[in-house]
């Protein structure tokens, strides 16, 4: 799957749900969080495009270009992927789409993968690629936290 396909789906779903267009910042955060969730649930990335650590959080350059050119047409859910991934994508949308963009930005600023890329001296504090393995470590921490919370419910 390509990130632009997921962005088109989220754009369409957002317009249908909230009767307005999604802003660019929120789109990048939803895509990042979907990528992380795919690593949590399936151990593999949802899409291959790189995610970069921009000042206000993770950014996918192809999506940034699509927003700047106004070329983000809608897509239907059926064109995306098998059901198991569709459920994860829907869960991600339901969890994060209604939240404010700046709130999602603050959330992604807590991710070690973003912080590490931003503080790397070689990047000059600039827009540096966030390696999938780094995002995977964030996913592993969240998976473990969820496992512990689930175990605690049994007490």
Structural class: mainly alpha
Strand order of the largest sheet: 2-1-3
Distance between the termini: 41 Å
Mean pLDDT: 87
How many beta-strand runs? 3
One letter per element, helices H and strands E, the order comes to: HHEEHHHHEH
Beta content comes to 5-15%
Topology:
Elements: H1 3-18, H2 24-42, E1 51-54, E2 57-59, H3 61-69, H4 83-96, H5 101-108, H6 112-119, E3 128-130, H7 132-152
Antiparallel strand pairs: 1-2, 1-3
Helix pairs in contact: 2-4, 2-5, 2-7, 6-7
Give a quick set of tags describing it.
155 residues; three-stranded antiparallel beta sheet; mainly alpha
In short:
The chain has 7 helices and 3 strands. The chain has helices spanning 3-18, 24-42, 61-69, 83-96, 101-108, 112-119, 132-152, and strands at residues 51-54, 57-59, 128-130. A hairpin with a 2-residue loop joins β1 (51-54) and β2 (57-59).
Protein model, in words:
The chain is globular. The protein is mainly alpha-helical. It has helices at 3-18, 24-42, 61-69, 83-96, 101-108, 112-119, 132-152, and strands at residues 51-54, 57-59, 128-130. It has a 3-stranded antiparallel β-sheet. Helix content is 61%, strand content 6%. A hairpin with a 2-residue loop joins β1 (51-54) and β2. The N and C termini lie far apart (41 Å). The mean pLDDT is 87.
